Amino acid sequence: MAPTKPRESKNTLQEVRIRRALKERRLEGTSFRKLADKYGVSSSTLSDRERGGLTRQQSHAHEQKLTPAMEKALEDWCKKLDDWGFPPRMDLLRAMAGALAQIRAEEEEDPELAHLGQHWLSNFLNRHPSLSAKFSTQLDCQRAYGGNIPALKDYFTKLLRLIRTRKIQPEDIFNMDEKGFIIGMSSKAKVICRTGRRPPWVTQDGTREMLTVIECCCAALYVLPSFVIFKGAAHYMGWHTETSDPEANFAYSPNGWTDDKLGLEWLRHFDKHTRDRQGGNDRPRLLILDGHGSHINLVCH
């Protein structure tokens, strides 16, 4: 695994000095000799770069597993997810890069291009100093930040800007989340009993099986059909006959939790029911969700 804060390579520091020297030359017209002494860079290198010479990274681009365009797209993808509040994990970034490398290998019919090196991730971060790897905070800290007034104002400012820029209507704004339930567990409830007796026991079967329900509501005051995930290895007809919602979608997983594949299946479920209400139009739809692992993953991209 790559270090959490990759060290800047000598090449990266050299490139920074070259750019600063060339900037000073453009602004003040300083000679190459003085710039070479000040920044510790060869005057011939500065002269060559001013005439349009390639950087070290550009000259070695043919040796990289991803093309410059692919790396730029990957960099933009990381920044976009970070702006949305879902910075990608390091394993997800590597998986996305692997998928792009596989595409290039198939296009150029070179199997070697599909295999990323052990240090690819740290080298990628060194090539793109606008990105860095940091430890994320835990979920409970994020919930605490939810009460931070400046953070809330910033969130709603960005949300309003997005809605106005894309001209998104209320009937095209949705919010989704999932909720887990333990089958057979009784919750506390007030019951009627004789005065003076001890609190009565409420029996439960104690199966402790997990059930997950994904719900989605619209700002136009309607709710999409439920997406229910049971624990199992196949569909059971009883799931379909014991519900009052004929449009509910039922799925299963080994533990009753949502996962990447079921997250993608729910996204198709969402697209089907929201597109029908649009009458087949292709207006942009805004889906607001949290950073659960099944919401942001390689499968959904």
Describe the protein.
- There is one protein chain.
- This protein has 3 domains: 10-127, no CATH class; 137-167; 170-300, no CATH class.
- It is 43% helix and 12% strand.
- The longest helix has 19 residues, at 10-28.
- With 301 residues, it is of the alpha/beta class.
- Strands 1, 2, 3, 4, 5 and 6 form a 6-stranded mixed beta sheet that branches.
- Strand 2 and strand 3 form a beta hairpin.
For the record, give the distance between the C-alpha atoms at the N and C termini, rounded to a whole number.
23 Å
Total separate domains: 3
- What is the H-and-E element order? HHHHHHHHHEEEEHEHE
Radius of gyration: 27 Å
Backbone shape: elongated
What fraction of residues sit in β-strands? 5-15%
What profile does the largest beta sheet have? Answer: 6 strands, mixed
How many separate helices? 11
Strand segment count: 6
Mean pLDDT level: 77
Low-confidence stretches: 1-8
Judged by helices, strands and strand pairing, the structural class is alpha/beta
Determine the fraction of residues in helical runs and give it as a percent range. 40-55%
